[in-house]
Please model this.
Amino acid sequence: MGRPLITNIYSREESNVIAFGVILGRKAAESVNAIREASWFIEVFDIASKRNLLERARVYDIGDIKLTSYDDLENVTKTTSSILSEGKLPLMLGGGHLATYHALKAMPKDVILLVFDAHCDLRESYMDEKIVELDYINESTMIDKKLNDATWLRWASEEKMFKKAAVIGVRSGDEEQLVYAKKNGILLITSEKLLSRNGLNAAAKILSNLTKGRKVYLSLDIDVFDPSIAPAVDHPEPLGISFREFTKLIKSIKGRIVGCDVVCLRKIPDNEVTEFLAARAIFEILYYAT
Ligand SMILES: [Mn+2]
Model:
């Protein structure tokens, strides 16, 4: 690890947020560190709303979880559990989206899951070269056809790891996944809908109602943003949301955020746009989560 995430001036005891990295996928270590590094260069005061975004956040960064094999992913669950047992907020930096499945395992079963993602991730099984690469741990790793970055939400749903879920800003998925979502009470709020007239207000209302008085797990796949503002992702999808839309939706969450992650950034050379956006998104999340 290079520099830790910003505000890492507290001891573990003094902190209320514990950050950790999950090195899952090629370039994951580099990408997670790029977010950490970018966090030192962003103004924590939001001039428009006159808020210090980190006024309540006391972050302690424990570094990256060691993964030497696929089975080590249970360390994500263990780490998340121990942070929860200390009464603190886990903030996971990924790595592939499969890490979210393992973090979610440590969460209470009645949690409301909010996923910002361009993709449904609801396939029953899936494997292509890209997925193998995404879930890369080491040369000898066999990737699970059933449980990977494109299927994790399906399996989290099958295993009843949340009470309700919404995938926000989604714009990629096949008909089978649509049917599955509908049958299983997973709300898909497409980016098309968000970008339509009054769509953002309507979605904000839905999220408020969904989360009111509830525990919330928030997962941000960076590819939910339009590729023009977040190019450093594995699967860029056109028609993404803006940062303004993201902040408005985050603000509408009425429940208590009990866990969060920012995943799927893949660093590209000579371009820091995406990691700066990711770090700023973390600030916004921490403003409402602490
Ligand atoms: Mn995605």
User: Anything to note?
Assistant: The longest strand covers residues 256-263. DSSP finds ten helices and ten strands in the chain.
